[in-house]
Amino acid sequence: MKSIRALVIGCAVGLVALVPSCGSSRRACDEASCGGCCDENDRCVPGGADQACGSGGGRCIACPATHVCRSGTCVDRRSACQQSCSGCCDGATCRPGNELTACGSGGVACATCGSNQVCEGQCKDPACTGCISGVGLCEPGTKDLLCGKGGSACIRCADGRRCEVGTCVPVFMGIGCTSADGGCLQGESAAACGRPRRYEKPPGGT
Fold it and tell me: Among 5, 31, 98, 155, which residue has the fewest nearby CB atoms (within 10 Å)?
């Protein structure tokens, strides 16, 4: 009788040992214990690596080659560059954006500037030192019909004026010819013959 009782008690103890206790099926890594993601070994990892990406205690995933891990989520590499780059994106690579061969800002695709342009966050024509014509072109600003400087609008010099270094200045029409010593002669003699000549009005001249 005692042997039967011992056998029953032994079986009962064995069953208790085989049946898991309440809550023992809970994962070692889960949303309650992990802020990153759980790897294949049920360990909690940060979840920011391309090969172990995730958040909230979920299973880590490996991002495909065309994606990167951002904040626990696999996102397209180009989109990731656009979201975080203050310069320009050369494919998935963020460049400073201040080079002629890679110009841009705000995560836009890098652009190659023209040979006569400068990079200032974007490709621009250089500042105009002459004047801007009516069609938006930068002119030297030294012509009577297109006179100006400092990027101002070109103007046409009025009659009696000419363009000199971007400014319309008055001119003087001589009544004869200019002698070798700079004097103005009537230009009617055999020794000093000439017709009216246009030249700049001297400062304070009449």
Answer: 5
Whether residue 83 is predicted with pLDDT greater than 90 in this model: the reply is no
Domain-located, residue 11: no
- Cα distances from 49 to residues 27, 65, 107, in angstroms, run 22, 13, 22
168-172: list long-range contacts, CB under 8 Å, 24+ apart. Answer: 168/144, 169/200, 169/201, 170/201, 171/198, 171/199, 171/200, 171/201, 172/198, 172/199, 172/200, 172/201, 172/202, 172/205
Residue 13 has pLDDT above 80, yes or no: no
Q: Burial of 91 by CB count in 10 Å (0-12 exposed, 13-18 middle, 19+ buried)? A: exposed
Record the pTM: 0.39
Number of Cβ atoms within 10 Å of the Cβ of 37: 25
- Residue 2: how many other CB atoms lie within 10 Å: 6
* Same-domain pairing of 34 and 72: yes
